[in-house]
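Dear Dr. H.,

I hope your travels went smoothly. While you were away I took the liberty of generating a structure for the chain from your last submission, since the lab meeting agenda had it listed for discussion. I wanted you to have the full record in hand beforehand rather than looking at slides cold. The sequence, exactly as received, is reproduced here:
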Amino acid sequence: MIKHDFKVQTNWQGGRDEIGTVNGDVLSEQISIPASLGGNGTGTNPDEILVSAASSCYIISLAATLERAKFTNVTLTVDSVGTAIFENGKFRMDKITHYPSISVPDNEKENLEKRLPKLIEIADNNCMISNSIRNNVAIDITPTIL
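The corresponding predicted structure, in token form, is as follows:
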């Protein structure tokens, strides 16, 4: 078994209306409760970080999957939406939907269209974040080929 630690430090002082920080090897950001949930909306928030982690992991996994499938001239954009719900007195992330847009040369589109359902599945199954939240957060993927 291979093990790797990812370390972050968070800091907070005061109550729910204050601003904290989260810092990692590269990440350095202010955090607060989102304005949409009655907070001050400064910096990012855990919900956005979760969706960002899922989206960035998925795009990297998809890029690697497409590369292994010999699609090397690819441009990817993934729009991701996290849907949180309030249920049984608690907020939780219910679903994350990824909308990957995949641009390939015209002469590769037909081949990609045939193989895309399997490649989408492989990329999701190779994404560490998807594997970590699966069975707790639904993951939907709706691709578009440009």
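Two observations you may find useful: The longest strand covers residues 90-103. Residues 8 and 25 are 7 Å apart (CA to CA).

With kind regards,
E. W.
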